[in-house]
Specification:
The chain has 146 residues and is an alpha/beta fold. The protein has one domain (27-145): 3-Layer(aba) Sandwich (D-Maltodextrin-Binding Protein, domain 2). The protein has 6 helices and 7 strands, in the order H-H-E-E-H-E-H-H-E-H-E-E-E. It has helices spanning 3-18, 22-27, 45-52, 75-85, 89-102, 114-123, and strands at residues 30-35, 42-43, 66-69, 109-110, 127-132, 140-142, 144-145. The strands form 2 sheets. A 5-stranded mixed β-sheet has the order 4-3-5-1-6. The protein has a two-stranded parallel sheet with strand order 2-7. It starts with a helix and ends with a strand. Mean pLDDT is 88; it is low at 17-25.
């Protein structure tokens, strides 16, 4: 065999092994989620942003919104803020702090883990949060951004 052919096979094998499986990429997709009893299936990006900024407090049917978030340092929280809401976590925290300290609103409910997020959203009608696509359960559904 020629040296060029061997080098070609070697390089090809390196690139092939470096590509992660498609399934792994889908598991790391963060999405907004709601309690499955919620009648709403879609929301505008601005509407979703208003909900997480604690400015939109009711769903389109008039029911109350309950917002659950993870700690500012949690990788899932960071990913959601940056990829979905297009803000940094510290910007969200600053917004919530202003609401609380001015007395004009309240911060979302803080949960300690992804598992607690799942449990709270499953049990709380009108609730919203975020999870990886792979973490959906029967009591939780995806909220599509239109």
């Amino acid at each position: 065999m020629s040296l060029v052919f061997i080098l070609f096979i070697f390089l090809l094998s390196q690139f092939a092994s470096a590509a992660p499986p498609v399934i792994e990429k889908q598991q790391n997709i963060v999405i907004p989620v709601i309690n499955s009893a919620n009648q709403q299936d879609t929301i505008s990006r601005n509407g979703l942003s208003a909900i997480f900024k604690m400015r939109l407090l009711r769903w389109s049917d008039g029911s109350a919104v309950t917002v659950f978030v993870l700690n500012d340092d949690d990788p899932l929280h960071k990913q959601f803020c940056k990829q979905i809401l297009n803000v940094f976590p510290h910007q969200m925290r600053r917004n919530w702090d202003k609401l609380v300290f001015s007395g004009s609103g309240q911060a979302p409910i803080l949960v300690e883990s992804k598992e607690e997020m799942i449990e709270k959203i499953e049990k709380t009608p009108g609730s919203v949060g975020y999870l990886n696509l792979s973490d959906l359960t029967n009591g939780i559904k995806r909220l599509d951004i239109k």
